[in-house]
Amino acid sequence: MNKIRSSRRIEMEATRNMEVMWLVGKVTPHAFMRQTV
Predict the structure, then answer these.
(1) How many domains in the chain?
(2) 15-36 pLDDT, tens per residue?
(3) Rounded to whole angstroms, how far apart are CA atoms 5 and 37?
(4) In terms of residue numbers, what domain contains 14?
(5) What is the superkingdom listed in this entry's lineage (predicted)?
(6) 17: number of CA atoms within 13 Å, CB side?
């Protein structure tokens, strides 16, 4: 997860990396933006 700053990259990592899925609470940045805006 180090050096990942792009929300698109975090979204991609959250769909394939279980540690990142746990860290973001199974909500990708794209879905988070849709839910909060």
Answers:
(1) 1
(2) 777 777 777 776 656 655 555 5
(3) 21
(4) 7-36
(5) Bacteria
(6) 12
